[in-house]
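Submission checklist for the structure archive. All mandatory fields must be present; incomplete records are returned to the submitter.

[x] Identifier: glycogen phosphorylase
[x] Organism: Streptomyces musisoli
[x] Residue count: 872
[x] Sequence attached
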Amino acid sequence: MKAIRRFTVRPVLPDPLRPLSDLARNLRWSWHAETRDLFQSVDAEAWAAAGGDPVRLLGSVRPARLAELAGDRRFLRRLTAVADDLDDYLTGERWYQSQSGGLPAAVAYFSPEFGITAALPQYSGGLGILAGDHLKAASDLGVPLIGVGLLYRHGYFRQTLSRDGWQQEHYPVLDPNELPLTQLKEPDGTPAGVSLALPGGRALRARIWLAQVGRVPLLLLDSDVEENDFGERGVTDRLYGGGSEHRLLQEMLLGIGGVRAVRTYCRLTGHPVPEVFHTNEGHAGFLGLERISELCADGLDFDSALEAVRGGTVFTTHTPVPAGIDRFDRELVGRHFGLDAELPGIDVQRILALGMETYPGGEPNLFNMAVMGLRLAQRANGVSLLHGQVSRGMFAGLWPGFDAEEVPITSVTNGVHAPTWVAPEVLRLGARQIGAQRAEDALSVGGSERWDSVADIPDQEIWELRRTLREQLVLEVRERLRVSWRQRGAANAELGWIDGVLDPDVLTIGFARRVPSYKRLTLMLRDRDRLMELLLHEERPVQLVVAGKAHPADDGGKRLVQELVRFTDDPRVRHRIVFLPDYGMAMAQKLYPGCDIWLNNPLRPLEACGTSGMKAALNGCLNLSVLDGWWDEWFQPDFGWAIPTADGAATEPDRRDDIEAAALYDLLEQRIAPRFYERGRGGLPDRWIEMVRQTLSLLGPKVLAGRMVREYVDRLYAPAAQAHRALAPDTARDLAEWKARVRGAWPGVSVDHVETTATTATAELGTTVGLRVRVALGSLTPDDVEVQAVSGRVDAEDRITDATVVPLKPTGTPDLEGRLVYEGPLSLDRTGPYGYTVRILPTHRLLASAAELGLVTVPSEEVVEGAGMLLR
């Protein structure tokens, strides 16, 4: 019979065991081995059945066992030690508290998904895992972060396979009361919440749930509350589901409701108010509108409020393709703002203007969330060096007149939270080498360029560790594969072959990620005969473990999954290649350590970063990847292999896949497998072990989330906090007025004449040429602008590359027509074709970049013909 109502019955812990509740409610347990070991010792069988979730464990332990533990002095000593360790972690000074230089009192970090632990399934892929690692690393470093997201009642889907290998989606209902969450409450005990106004006088209400991620509070908004109508209750039903209006309401709740939730949390807890707001991808972009609305309610005009908000906002883009950005019809957005809806104090046209694609190639009727994010943030970044470059090109239309290299989007390369992703066996090996505390600090805080102590680990220990991890993966794969086949309808009697799947002594390759077409799940199947030869080689076989989810609406991705599954079902190779459904954090934590090679073969440059290979590397797994994302930046032959690519628009897609697949097979057959199986005098694969050692010692410190968060603090959060403080209401008003004056006067700015002291078209290296420029500034003054000489080598079309910029100085007073003369030296410091130009830019002490206004004046064609000169 089916229950008509559901309750969550919480256990009553004996007084000596009360600290277990606090330990279970702080998600630090998800990356703290001693805490997990303690919970496992409560009841090992129940711990396994609960999937390693302490909240579920405590709800299932028999009262007799709890009473037994309450009298177990040895267990209570362990409990006290772990509880004291958590208290010290939460209250002690950490890296951030030892820094100086005006760091922000707090940072609010907004993301549509967070991958903290499998026990809180609020993520779909890399964006959420990155956000979770960001919070954990911030906690380890002591950064006063507040995370903000949505609580999806169905999370992301669970994946199974049909008998013929077609992806099936399932959406189990999540009860917040059974998750490691607490409800934020007002002083009178009523649930704290936020409300958004909807068209037609309706409202969207949401409760605020709190997940404690170490030192970092994560606020999750939940619209499934009785006060909402049926439609509004479903706004937070599932991650990345529904149509355009559903997604728009999710993003309004995340951005606007998220800011209101932060204000409520700070009011109720006394947490410092954030000075910096970090928008992780465009989904949360509406947060800037809410903050503008707050300032307008305090008396600022829109333009001044915009400047104040921009100063304290950081925007991170994660997508290298326009198709990956949420875009909405302008009429849909317009209907949800204004007098009859949300933010009635702001002119709807001003809101729409922030997101419209008003640049060449843009869609004039679409509201672009990333464009709004960039316009609302004074500082922006991509997530790897290559992705920063791709992003500058993709969004260059927002800064007309500037070369892509000067577009003000920098990059901070992603990192991964090592304590989450490093296998306990690897951590224990490090602890034996340098001590437990030093090993923990090295993985969480980081800061060293290299881990020299890895050099002292004997080859035999490294190889035994790798085999242990590989063997654990083999057992995990067999267990998961058996579950999958039973879900597909197979009887136990048909599954005896699974006991022979994979071999702990065979070279093991992992490939696991989401399944959009650009990640090329099936590139490995391009030449099936050749792949079979690699899998079944008598002396040097390889084996593959593959996992991945296609988006529920992506039938093309599902067909790729089915194609791969059908190949893995072939009795000839099914002991050497497997597909594991329902890829998630729990599986990943077994998969990364157990593989010898981590494979990544996206279409370059469509992988923004791709952090899965980083997690594998921290466990001594070598990377085999296209030079894309982070691998393009840090690849060295010491760490792994680069798959050659057939880049270029001239290469037809099928031919490109053929070329790159052939290169992949060649590497596996000729270089990788021979190195793995080759044995030295001591019977060990010496050269392979040395690559594992180099991966750990040189690549390990680079890929840490601690390194990433320290870069965010130094390069983005600290400058944003300083800008936020500088842009007090009066200063913000002055800056807005200055920008309006400059924009209005810019048509009157021109370069009227350029001349040099050079008399010929050739010159010697080291020569200094005098440059004299006459400019008209209209109603602007020399304090409003900077006149620059831009010089460097030129290509065949006279474009300056690797430019050097030198400010020129005004000389004398304006002539009768109001024109000024600027002069300066031009140093010819490079040989070969060399050229220069001049330009005029707005300048102000509160601009984060010379390109911020998107205004630049260069010489006209007439001036160029009279004075332009190439020095060869």
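[x] Structure attached
Curator remark: DSSP finds 29 helices and 28 strands in the chain. The two ends are 89 Å apart (CA to CA).
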